[in-house]
Design goal:
Layout: H1 10-16, E1 49-53, H2 63-75, E2 83-87, H3 96-102, E3 107-111, E4 128-131, E5 134-139, H4 142-147, H5 149-163
Parallel strand pairs: 1-2, 1-3, 3-5
Antiparallel strand pairs: 4-5
Length: 165
């Protein structure tokens, strides 16, 4: 096959040559906005409450931690139908504003996730803040909470403040 017979797609050529070949005036390159992925979550999210976890090893939580979470929800008079449990390990480097577009939420809890991971400024654990119209509570990971009664009490205090219980 000779070079005379090679045909390249114009779109492909435009992607290769993002800078002008001849020096001079530069033309702006159009960039496509980042597409928001279709986020999968556990629950029905009827009350627009997002619970964020980061668990690389499993789809969501193991049985012990899932039971702890359902007990916490029951104490708050909530169920899995009311929340969206999201494992951010499946969606790396997504900003909080993108999460808000992907999962409808009025309130959110970050379990063991540094706020900076989601493009938020750091704020203390168990203190409710408002970011981009959403109330947020940052908490320790569920596993240490399951082992420590004092952490459970701090989480309960934060949840009461967040949910107005």
């Amino acid at each position: 096959m000779s070079f005379d017979q090679v045909q390249l797609d114009p779109y492909f050529l435009a992607r290769i040559y993002t800078q002008p070949i001849i020096p001079g005036e530069k033309a702006p390159v159009a960039t496509a906005p980042a597409a928001i992925p279709d986020v999968k979550f556990l629950g029905e999210n009827q009350k627009n409450i997002a619970l964020f976890i980061q668990n690389e090893g499993e789809a969501y939580l193991n049985e012990e931690l899932f039971n702890l979470l359902t007990n916490i929800l029951n104490a708050c008079k909530l169920g899995m139908q009311d929340i969206a449990l999201v494992n951010i390990a499946h969606y790396p480097a997504m900003a909080f504003t993108s999460w808000q577009s992907a999962v409808k939420m009025k309130q959110a809890v970050l379990f063991g996730i540094p706020p900076a991971t989601m493009g938020l400024e750091d704020f203390p654990f168990y203190q409710v803040i408002t970011a981009n119209g959403c109330q947020l509570l940052s908490s320790d990971d569920l596993y240490p909470i399951s082992q420590d009664k004092m952490m459970k009490g701090k989480l309960w205090g934060g949840l009461k403040q967040l949910l107005g219980i």
